[in-house]
Amino acid sequence: MRRSASSRVNNILALLHDQERHRRKMSTKITGPIHFGPFEVTPQVFLTTPHSFALVNLKPLLPGHVLICPRRPYKRLTDLSGPELTDLFQAVQRVERMLARHYFSSSSSSSSPSDSNSKSQDGTPEAGSFNIAIQDGAEAGQTVSHVHVHVIPRIRGSTAKEVPGPGDQIYESMAAEEGNVGGALWDRELNKFRQRLGNRPEPGGSFPSIEDSERHPRTAEEMEAEARMFRRVLEQMEEGDGELE
Question: Integer distance in angstroms from the first to the last C-alpha of the chain?
């Protein structure tokens, strides 16, 4: 019995050690080139891990909308190996904590205080909410044939879902032109990649289209500035007291 208990403790310690080692392998020092499908996105990347990378979005649906991708250009989630899948979602967790620190803090101009947003939750994922989504295949609306996880912070009193109950327009937006990640990148790279890409990707999925007249792709400078900002937040998390780890 004692040996069994000791073995369980050792297994837990080994797991914690592996998680800490993985966290330390995450880096904000980006070396390229890094590609998202056929698109070179190195300046947009703000985090890399052994098997994944995170980048800011050309046409974010809401402030803080970012993407996390495996380094290898897998088309479907089921193509990833076990270690790659684990790495991908550990990166998702890390990015959630970073976005919470930036957007859900009472010091953030985007954050709106509420009775439930206690001091102990300030700057943590519990101080807001997130949409985490994967469009796994063209019929689900995937417009870049490279697995990517959408991480979208929902800020209380600002970008949170307005109407209680089922349904959320963010998913309709994701399947419509405003969520057409591939189309936006295709437009940006039209002259450079026209010979290689063929026809422009179209949005997909079973949701109805909605108007997108007021949203425009961001400039490279805007995206690079946001990527630098997110790198700084991640670096501050590493240098800080560890409360958000």
Answer: 34
